[in-house]
Write a structure and sequence with these properties.
By secondary structure, the protein is an alpha+beta fold. It has two domains: about 10-175, no CATH class; about 195-340. It is about 40% helix and about 20% strand. The chain has ten helices and eleven strands. The chain has helices at about 5-10, 20-40, 50-65, 70-90, 110-140, 160-175, 245-255, 300-310, 335, 340-345; strands spanning about 150, 150-155, 195-200, 205-210, 215-225, 230-240, 275-280, 285-290, 315-325, 345, 355. A seven-stranded antiparallel beta sheet has the order 8-7-3-4-5-6-9, with helices on one face. A two-stranded antiparallel ribbon has the order 1-2. A two-stranded antiparallel ribbon has the order 10-11. Helix 3 runs antiparallel to helix 4 and helix 4 (about 70-90) packs antiparallel against helix 5 (about 110-140). About 30% of the residues are buried.
């Protein structure tokens, strides 16, 4: 018997270990579907081919796990089929803009329904990773034994499947998490003026924002966040501008420096220690005065901000939590200015192609 024949014989020899990945994919997919039903969706409601395929996938994966114990080569074919069946529905129900599993991890309020939604999104991510790994692994096992990779038969190696699945998940993550968004849709009144002050000290950011509305009420928002942390606390207090501050507000809105706007959203501070001042009025884009662009903010703007900051609160105050699945690296000045909802950062123009900024 030739070496090739011996390798083929070893490759098709039944092994209980071979059923491990199909069973893991089966468990993750079933758990995902159960979670999908728990968030209020009827798993038997849809009639599309992709939905029928995802419901069929667990049964095919179960058959594949059993076949691998007696007929390995046929089992690998069925395994690849079972893993591939579920992926179209998951990809078709994902969107970079709205309905994004990664952005769901930024949900910043504690509620049983939100928790179930986050768990469902987490399971979708896990299911995609396992299904891709299983699909590539099964297809690798079907390669001819004469194909070599690092002086070993390619069909006996698992690391290529792990590497390719990991690369896909990383690319998926990098594509969908930017820009920073939370899984909410808002249609709120825009402030007349927003001023954001960011001080960066190493991996720590100290942020304060004043948003003034048409009725001269304002929100003062503060947070101290750090890179490599998933969540951080945020405090909000309300107030009413005094007559003196209202007069100064009109002067601030007339500053010519605030009309020299940026063509695109400003980036987060990159220097180890720096400071940035960002403003936005409802009729103009964002202005940025930072240590990185060597542009100092107008003195009147800073003075107005400090006065509002030190003014006594005349309304309610609240504490909350903000989450960033990027561990702080997605959160940018646009988010600091209050643009966090999905429909504020992503939209569909006339050509129906997603635009995010």
């Amino acid at each position: 018997m030739s070496n090739v024949s011996m390798n083929e014989s070893e490759q098709t020899k039944p092994s209980p270990k071979a059923a491990f990945l199909p069973v893991c994919s089966l468990a993750a997919l079933v758990w995902t579907l159960v979670s999908y039903a728990r968030i209020g969706s009827n798993v038997l409601l849809y009639g599309s081919m992709d939905w029928f395929a995802v419901l069929l996938s667990p049964f095919v994966l179960l058959s594949a796990a059993l076949l691998l114990l007696w007929h390995p080569r046929l089992g690998y074919v069925v395994t690849a089929l079972g893993a591939a069946l579920a992926l179209p529905w998951i990809f078709m129900t994902e969107s970079r803009g709205v309905g994004n599993s990664w952005i769901a991890m930024n949900a910043s309020w504690n509620d049983p329904d939100v928790f179930r939604y986050m768990r469902y999104s987490q399971l979708r991510i896990v299911s995609v990773a396992l299904l891709l790994l299983t699909l590539i692994w099964a297809m690798t096992r079907l390669l001819p034994s004469k194909w070599q990779l690092k002086n070993r038969p390619a069909n006996q190696q698992t690391w290529p499947a792990i590497a390719l699945a990991l690369i896909f998940v990383v690319c998926w993550f990098a594509t969908d998490v930017f820009p920073y968004r939370e899984p909410i849709i808002v249609d709120a009144l825009q402030p007349e003026l927003s001023i954001l002050n960011v001080k960066k000290d190493g991996v720590a950011f100290h942020e304060a924002r004043v948003s003034v509305y048409r009725d001269f009420r304002y929100h003062m928002v503060r947070d101290d966040r750090q890179l490599f942390r998933y969540s951080f606390a945020e405090t909000v207090r309300e107030g009413l501008l005094t007559d003196d501050l209202r007069t100064k507000l009109k002067a601030i809105q007339a500053l010519p420096e605030l009309k020299r706007t940026l063509d695109k959203s400003p980036r987060a501070l990159r220097v180890w220690r720096g400071e940035g001042w960002y403003t936005e009025m409802h009729s103009f884009a964002i202005t940025a005065f930072t240590t990185e662009n060597a542009t100092p903010p107008p003195a009147d703007l800073v003075a107005f901000f400090r006065e509002v900051e030190e003014a006594p609160s005349s309304g309610t105050s609240s504490d909350g939590e903000v989450r960033d699945v990027c561990l702080g690296f997605c959160y940018d000045p646009k988010a600091g200015l209050g643009y966090r909802a999905e429909n504020q950062r992503c939209w569909y123009p006339a050509d129906r192609k997603e635009r995010c900024y």
